[in-house]
What does this fold into?
Amino acid sequence: MLFEPLFALLLINFLGKRVDPAQAGYDVRRYTIACRYIAVGLLLLDIVTDYTFIEFGIRLCVFALMWLVYVRPELRIGRSFMLSMLPYMVLSLVSGLVESINNDFYDEHSTVFESAELFGLLWFGAMWFVDRNQRRALENERAKRAAEEARLRVMAELKVNLEAEVAQRTSELVKQKEELEETLEELKRTQDQLIQSEKMASLGELTAGIAHEIQNPLNFVNNFSEVSVELLEELKSGPLGQLPPERREEAAEIIGDLTQNLEKISLHGKRADGIVKSMLQHSRSSAGKKEEININTLADEYLRLSYHGLRAKDKTFNATMETDFAADLHPIAVIPQDLGRVLLNLFNNAFYSVSEKKKDAPADYTPLVRVSTRNTRMTDGREAVEITVHDNGLGIPDAILDKIYHPFFTTKPTGQGTGLGLSMSYDIIRKMHGGDMRVATAEGAYATFVITIPA
It folds into this structure.
């Protein structure tokens, strides 16, 4: 009896369980069933017949199956099983060939051939046992590896989820931090505004009391200086005429000196009166109520008010006014009275600068004051509105540029400025509105003031 059909049946069953249908590209199950029937048929044929050529045909069929396992990529999983069969198949084939060629020699050495075939069977059994153990070990290792990969995959997913949660939480914390910082900045700005308002209110009360105390003697000084000048004029035209000629000239000289002194007293008294009024204006607190207004309308109104105010003092003065107002300004809330005072002060300074330059400028010089508005952003990214006041006047010397916002600092002649305008404007913009005020200038060429107010 041949064992080849049994080996073929075992090999077919092994392949039916191990071959991956996805790699085969054909119906593995159908071919496996067909091959099982063929193997069983060969086994039955070997049992019922005893022909040598049939045995060789059976062996060739099994060798063909082994060759397919060797060459087909999808069947190579059964190669170790096929190699364990190979020694018996070769020894059995050699025994069959010897028996068919020289039967006497085979009978004489039958024990050797039977022992060789037994060795092939034992080899198959041993290799099958070893292969099974190795396969189980590999399967266990593969299972462990799959479990480890699954664990690593779960850990990776948990890590990704954890990182996402950490990133989300970090983003929330950063957002909360930014909101807290913004709230803190807003509180600081509000605190500065409250402090400034309180300082202005306290200073207003103080200066109001001082002003009332100073105003009365100041009025007496101004009034009596004017009256004294009138009395001296009467003295000239009256009693002075009765003096002898040699005394009259000396008395006229003394009266002239007294008149000059009284005029200086009146001039400085009026200047002191102007300073007191400017201090009252600087420290006067408005209602402090912010409201949304049309910045373009406010700027245009105060530009024309300033120009016509200067024209009322000097009929010969003329200047070109240019406006460039953005139509889509961000809505901003301001204190209209305070912002109006700032704009009026800047416009007055601009018109004064171009009027002074006009006195010594060439004939082709044209005084120009330009005001423009546009949308912009603060340095911290907040939306804002920018107001620019530009003039082509005298400019500001670099030596005094860092002093222009100091209280009582002025470059105007005595009696024409108190030095409180820019100081008041700077405080209103920075402290009352949380904005910024900066200047760009070139001496003898131009001066540009830029106001930025957050929306």
